[in-house]
Design goal:
By secondary structure, the protein is an all-alpha fold. It has helices at about 5-25, 35-45, 50-60, 80-100, 105-120, 125-145, 150-170, 175-190, 195-210, 225-230; strands spanning about 65, 75. The chain has 10 helices and 2 strands; from the N terminus they run H-H-H-E-E-H-H-H-H-H-H-H. Strand 1 and strand 2 (about 75) form a beta hairpin.
């Protein structure tokens, strides 16, 4: 296989991963939903092999369960899993803030405020859009540290938290999260680091307290139809 062919395959796999992550975070895909390789290939216009590799990547991120001789399914977090995820998330995102406090550029502040603006515009829409945008806010903060290992772990834990919120959270207003994000931007930009890290911890604990946890959201599933918007990018 040529380098160009490998690159194309990698791009296609990345597109599937991105689409499925977004579908999970927005609640279009729910815990326990089956993810057969042939249906994924049909949805995204790729081979079963590429779909299989994408499922392996998502399994490594904790978003998909792979069982021997069984079709892959969206991971089904328990309330205890969700609590553990938020505990780990608090510790990781305190590190993010410690690195960024007092060092955000004007462009970085503007980029973060643009995400908050999108959150504000989406606040009366589906819960899934708010969860996705809030997840993007926190991942963008991590990316601004320029520390690849920290970015990797924060990104993974944010997606796992997003799955937990989408699957288990009770309906709630996103207005508080929006105001908290604005306060975080202000304090991270100015410092001091310890106060900004404490505010991040308070924010994440408040998210968990407001949202978690509630019960069954089962409904009829049609994978190809569900994934159509996400296959278009």
């Amino acid at each position: 296989m040529t380098a160009g062919a490998r690159s194309v395959g990698g791009d296609r796999m990345a597109a599937i991963c991105q689409g499925i992550r977004r579908a999970i975070i927005e609640g279009a895909l729910m815990p326990g939903d089956r993810l057969p390789e042939d249906a994924l290939g049909e949805s995204f216009g790729v081979s079963r092999t590429i779909a299989r590799h994408a499922l392996g990547q998502l399994a490594a991120e904790g978003l998909v369960d792979l069982r021997r001789n069984r079709i892959a399914t969206v991971t089904a977090p328990t309330p205890a899993d969700a609590r553990d995820i938020f505990d780990i998330r608090v510790a990781l995102e305190r590190q993010v803030v410690q690195h960024l406090a007092g060092h955000l550029s004007h462009d970085q502040v503007a980029a973060l405020k643009e995400i908050v603006r999108q959150e504000h515009d989406a606040r009366h829409g589906p819960d899934g859009a708010s969860i996705r945008l809030a997840t993007e806010f926190h991942i963008r903060l991590a990316e601004m540290t320029g520390k690849p290992i920290l970015v990797r772990y924060v990104t993974e834990i944010c997606y796992r938290a997003g799955l937990s919120l989408s699957a288990l959270a009770r309906p709630h207003s996103s207005d508080c999260a929006i105001s908290e994000h604005l306060a975080l931007i202000d304090l991270i930009a100015k410092g001091p680091a310890d106060k900004a890290a404490d505010l991040m911890a308070e924010h994440l604990e408040a998210v968990a307290a407001r949202a978690l946890l509630s019960g069954d959201r089962s409904r009829s599933r049609d994978l190809v139809n569900i994934l159509q918007p996400y296959a278009r990018g």
